[in-house]
Amino acid sequence: MKELMTGNEAIARGAYEHGVTVGVGYPGTPSTEILENFARYPGIKAQWAPNEKVALEVGMGASLAGARVLVTMKHVGVNVAADPLMTAAYTGVNGGLVLVSADDPGMHSSQNEQDNRFYARFARVPMFEPSDSQEALDMVGLALQVSEEFDLPVILRTTTRVAHSQSLVELKERNEVPLRPYRKNTKKWLMVPAFGRLRRQALEERLQKLKAYTETTPVNFISWGDRRVGVITSGISYQYVREVLPGASILKLGMTFPLPQGLIRQFAAGVERLLVVEELDPYIEEFVRGLGLEVTGKKIFPAWNEFTPGLVRRKLREAGIPVPSPGPGEGTAACPLGPGGEMEELPPVPGRPPVLCPGCPHRGVFYVLRKLKLLVTGDIGCYTLGGLPPLEGMDTCVCMGASIGMAHGCELADSSLARRTVAVIGDSTFFHSGITGLMHMVYNGGQGTVIILDNRTTAMTGHQEHPGTGKTLMGEPAPAVDLEALVRALGVGRVRVVDPLDIAGLTQAIQEEVAAGAPSVIVARRPCALLRRENRPPVRVDVEACTGCKTCLKLSCPAISVQDKQAAVDAIICTGCGLCVQVCKFGALKEGGENNG
Amino acid sequence: MAEVTGAALAPVDILMVGVGGQGIILASKILAYAARSAGYDIKVSEIHGMAQRGGSVVTQVRLGERVYSPLIPEGEAHIILAFEQLEALRWLEYVKGGGTIIVNSQIIYPVPVLAGMAQYPENIIAHLSRRAHTLVVDALGKALGCGNARAANVVLLGSLARRMPIPLSYWLSAIEDCVPARYLEVNRAAFQSGYAL
Ligand SMILES: Cc1ncc(C[n+]2csc(CCOP(=O)(O)OP(=O)(O)O)c2C)c(N)n1
Ligand code: SF4
Ligand code: SF4
C-alpha cells in the first residue's frame, strides 16, 4: 500500500532511498521535519548546525569527501547560507549535494515571503520544484543525479503547501551509493582569483549543458488539451491549475532553473493564449516575455501572498477565460441559503492569534520590559509573541540575530538611548547569529544590555536541540555550551543569571544593568513550559480580594480571564508559574494548595 | 452510509477547524487512513508553526478518485468538522451551501475575548444552521463519559464517519493503527458514541 507522507517526509525518504548519508540543516518552518525524519533512518548521519551557513559548509565538506548530501533550511536561511552557495556554484561538488529551500508564500510562519527561485538564477545552480509528495521524493533522486553529472549543488525548492501537505507516495528500497573518492584538485576547490576565473568559465560551460538538459528532462513536460488556453506553471500552482482548468493545455515545469527555452517556444506556438500561473514574483513570466512571446501573468494574478484554487479560478474568470463552475450546493428547505451559497451578514469574528503558552518563561520578561518603558530591540522565536498586545514588550523583529546589532546602533545614533535600550534574544537565536553582534558591541565600546532568553531549546520550530542543550539531533549526548563563560570570553564583564518567573528579581537586574554604563548580559534561564512539565498546583482566585482591575490581563496568559469584575483562572491549563500572583496588587491570586479561594 | 462500489469515487472535501491542542492532527490522520483503505486518492494540508501556540488551526482533507489541489476552494467543502464554535463561524464560508457542519458545542475564548478587547459572538449555531445541515455534538461530555476528556476529537470523528461513504470497519482499523494501545479502548468507545449521533 502507498504511504501518506508530507512533502517533508517524502524528501527525507527520497534522500534515504537515493543513498544520502549526510543530512545537515538549521530548523525553520516549513523545512524542519525533513531532517527530523531523515535522522530516523538507519545508516545515515543527521545534524543540526547552529546556523544555515555552517550547515551548507558542512554539506560541502561531506560532498568534497564523496558523500551524497542533503542540506535543509527555510527560505530566509538561504540568505544566511548565500555566501558559501554563491561560490559552491564555482567549485561544484564531488558527492551530489541537494539544498532544500522551503519557501513560505503567505508568511504562515515567517518574517518575509522572498521568492528563492532567484537564488538559483543568481548563483547559477539547477533548481527543481515538486508539486506533491511523490514528486518531492523522486526529485531528490533526480537532483542528486544532476548534481553529480553537472558538478553543481542543486536547489530543491518547496513551498509551505508542498512541504506540509500529505499525499500518497510509493516507497522503494534504499540504494546504497558508494563514496566517490576525493582527489586533490586545487583548481576546482581552492577559489583564489586565478582558479576562480577558471571555474567561472567552467560554470558557464556547465550551464550550457544544463540548458540542453532542461529541454529533455522528464520533469518538464507538456500535456496538450484545449488549445485556446495554454498555462505554464510549476510547484503547487500546477495542482491548482489542474483542478480549476481540467481541460487546458499545460506546460508543467519541474525544473525551473535553467528554464527550457525550446519547450516554452514549442508550447507557446501550440496555443492561442499563453498564461503563466506562479506564486510570488513573475519569475517564469519575465523569462517567457524575454523570449519575445506574448504572455499574461501578473497582470491578472497577485505577485504576493499564496494562491488558493479559489483565487486562481476567480482571477481566470476576471480575465475572461472560461472556467468550469464547481457543482452547485444542494440546498434544502432546512438550509435556505443552500444553492449557490449566498452568505448572510455574519457577526464579527474575533481573531485567535497565537499566544505564549501558560507558564511560558518568556512572559515575565516582556511584562517587566513594558513596565520599565525601555526601547527593546527584539529577535525571532516564540518570544516574538511578547511584542503583541497586551504584552507589547518588544519594539522590533527583523531577522535572526538582529537584536544586538540594532540595540548598539540605537546607542550610536543617540547616546541618550544607551541607558534605555535592551536587546532580547533567544538561546538558539543567540547561537545562530547573536554572538557576532555581541562581539561587535563589546569591541566597539557599546554599553548595551542583552537579555538572553535561555529556555533550553529551539521552541518556536518544535523544540529542536541546539549547541546549548547538551544533546544532538540523533539523541546523543553532547558538550553543552557554557553561555556565561562564552559571553565573558567575548569581553562582557557584567553577566548574571536570573529566573524569569521572579518579577522582582528580573526588574532589579534589568534596572541595574541598563544603568551600569558597561556592556552586560542577563541570562533569563528557565526551560520552556512544554519541555519539562514541572507544573505546580493551579492558582486560585480570592473572590473577596479581587477588584476586577484587570492588571493580571496584561500578562496575556490564556489561563486568566476577567468577567463581570472577577478574575478567573482556568485550572486545567494553568501551570502554577506564579507570575500573576506577583502581579496582583490586591493579593487576590493565590498560589495553589493554599487554603483560600 | 453509502456503499463503496467499483464506480469512480465521488470527491469528498472536509475542513477540520479548531484550536491548537484539540487533537485535530490525530483525527485527520485516522480519517486519512480509513480513506486510504477505501481506495481514495488523498491530500491533507495543515499549517504548523505559529498556529500551534493556541492559535486557530485548520486541516483540509480532500478525497476522490484523483485529487490535485491540497486546498479546498472557498465554498466547496462538503463537510466542516468544527472542534470549537467560533472556529466553525470563522470558516463558515468554506462549506458548500447545503453541506454539513458537525460542530462541537465547546466554547474556547480567544485571548482578545479574555482580555475584554473583543466579543465572543452569540447564536453561532443559528448562523451555521442557516447555511448548512448542522449537527451539534457535546464531544467533551461524551468523551468524559467514556473516561477521558482528551478523546473529544475522536467523538467528533465518529459523527463524521457516520456521514462518510467509508465502511465502519475501515474506521475501526484506522483507529487501531493510529492510537497507542493503552488509549485504544477509550478511543473506540468515544468513536462509537459519536457514530451513534
Ligand atoms: C535565518 C533563519 N533561520 C531560521 C528561522 C526560523 N526560526 C525562527 S525563530 C527560530 C529559533 C527560535 O529559538 P530560540 O531563539 O531559542 O527561541 P524560542 O523559540 O525557544 O523562544 C527559528 C529556528 C528564521 N526565522 N530565520
Ligand atoms: S513553546 Fe515554550 S517557549 Fe514557546 S510559548 Fe510555549 S512555553 Fe513559551
Ligand atoms: S500561574 Fe497565573 S500566569 Fe502562570 S499559568 Fe497560571 S494563570 Fe497563567
What topology emerges from the helices and strands here?
The complex is a heterodimer of chains A (597) and B (197).
Chain A lengths: L2 E4 H11 L2 E6 L6 H7 L6 E4 L3 H13 L3 E7 H6 L1 H10 L5 E7 L13 H7 L3 E2 L4 H18 L3 E6 H4 L1 E5 L16 H4 L3 H24 L3 E4 L2 E8 L1 H10 L3 E6 L1 E3 L3 H9 L3 E5 L5 H8 L18 H10 L44 H9 L3 E3 L24 H12 L7 E6 H17 L5 E6 L28 H7 L4 E5 L4 H13 L4 E6 L14 E2 L18 E4 L2 E4 L9 H5 L5 E2 L7
Parallel strand pairs in A: 2-3, 2-4, 4-5, 5-7, 6-7, 10-11, 10-13, 14-15, 15-16, 16-18, 17-18
Antiparallel strand pairs in A: 1-8, 6-12, 9-11, 19-22, 20-21
Helix pairs in contact in A: 1-2, 1-7, 3-5, 11-14, 15-19, 16-17
Chain B lengths: L11 E8 L4 H14 L3 E6 L9 E9 L12 E6 L2 H6 L4 E10 L6 H4 L9 H8 L1 E5 L1 H8 L5 H11 L5 H11 L5 H12 L2
Parallel strand pairs in B: 1-4, 4-5, 5-6
Antiparallel strand pairs in B: 1-3, 2-3
Bound molecules: thiamine diphosphate and iron/sulfur cluster (2 copies).
Keywords (chain B): Oxidoreductase, Pyruvate
Protein name (chain B): Indolepyruvate ferredoxin oxidoreductase beta subunit
Organism (chain B): Desulfofundulus thermosubterraneus DSM 16057
Summarize this, please?
Chain B: InterPro entries: IorB_Oxidoreductase, Pyrv/ketoisovalerate_OxRed_cat, Pyrv_flavodox_OxRed_cen. Chain B: It holds the Pfam family POR. The complex is a heterodimer of chains A (597) and B (197). Chain A is α/β, with parallel strands linked by helices and 597 residues long.
Q: Top keywords for this entry?
A:
heterodimer; A: 597 residues; alpha/beta; Rossmann fold; 5-stranded parallel sheet; 20 helices; 22 strands; B: 197 residues; Pyruvate-ferredoxin Oxidoreductase, domain 3; 6-stranded mixed sheet; binds thiamine diphosphate; binds iron/sulfur cluster
